[in-house]
Amino acid sequence: TLPSLYFIATMFSFQAARSAAAFTKSSVSVGGVSSSILRRTLAAKAGQAEVVLVGCGAPNRGMGWYHAVQMLEGRCPSASLDYVIEPWFLGPGSSGPGGPEFKEWADASKANNGTVFGTSIKDLPDPKQPRCALISGRTADNPKLFTECIAAKCSTIFLEKPGAPTVKELQQMRDEAEAAGVDVLMGYNKNVCKYVRKTREFAETVPGSHVTFVSNNAYENTPESLGECFERNAEGMLKNMAIHELALLVSFYDVTVENIASVAADKEFSSMQTLPGPSGKEFTDFDKIKFTIKTKTGKEVSVAADRCGGTDSYATVTDANGAEVFRYWMPDDEDKATVQELQAKYPTAMPYFFTQDPDYVTVKERVAKHTVTGEEAEGVATIGVAVETLRVAEYLTPTLMEQLK
Known about the structure:
The structure is a single chain. This protein is an alpha/beta fold and 405 residues long. The protein has helices at 10-18, 63-72, 99-113, 142-151, 167-180, 194-203, 223-232, 243-252, 333-345, 351-355, 357-373, 383-404, and strands at residues 23-30, 33-40, 49-54, 79-85, 116-118, 131-135, 156-159, 183-186, 210-216, 260-265, 271-276, 282-295, 300-306, 313-318, 324-330. Helix 5 (167-180) packs antiparallel against helix 12 (383-404). Keywords: Oxidoreductase.
């Protein structure tokens, strides 16, 4: 078995090159076997949060991996990625698909950055700087990981969407964090996106305007590709891909379950399929969905999401006569050069990483700075917003599925 915190021999030479005082040696027992390991005692500098990434995922595929890449490249100056906890690829999945690639990347990250890799949050030493956990694992695992992060003395938790499989579990997590005095902020990066801000600002200048948020992924439009997507994101499209747009509706359009007056699916655009995943088990989900919500307080907004629609997201504004008067893309012309550079650097990575790249940086930097200074993470969604967003997703999913039968 792999030790709970493991290191390769090259770390010894790296230790000397970096600083003999940066690491200490200790003995731990893993699975009844004593293993001598190196424990980092201080890596985050003053003014930086000590970040623990929980649930990295496969290189070029996992959102956690891309979070790690951005921090290791120094693009979030208030964040120091000191620990990566990855139970699967450092455990049962080490020799399976993605395992060798993960080891290669982990070894390079250890050698170049001194990041500590392990399989259990419980093995973390006490923090030396304010500690932030970035939880980016499987949604089903989040409640357990969340509790362990609180026990590991994290003062802030950055929780990737949707946070938990169910509203009840997310509410329990919120209450647990409040009781422990731990701040919980969410990875709803579109809340801070340029295209969202510019669309909302333009819509305010148009009488009777209507906003539509459009989200696209670039999966192949085949049963095999969509079946793999449905199984890997088994919580469903509205709790997964389109959850960002639902968070926008909750944050900016007064959408709550109690305030929804009506929801109507666009049946010409929308599509729902039942497909087998890699395991052979069948999953029913939307491969694309478009709907309009009207609230009891008089607001109206639309969302469209397409798993096979491409790499870009955008928003439109129509006037009172239904004519489109504004469209803003993510990425815009200013950001496209960055996207091309990233595609060349990581040619096999998920395309949506690059289109949302600056917003991922913004959210992580604001959360890390909040962890250190306590100042408000401007625009970043709280777990309270996440609870209501998940409530809306649970309400909409069966409602829209019934309309598409």
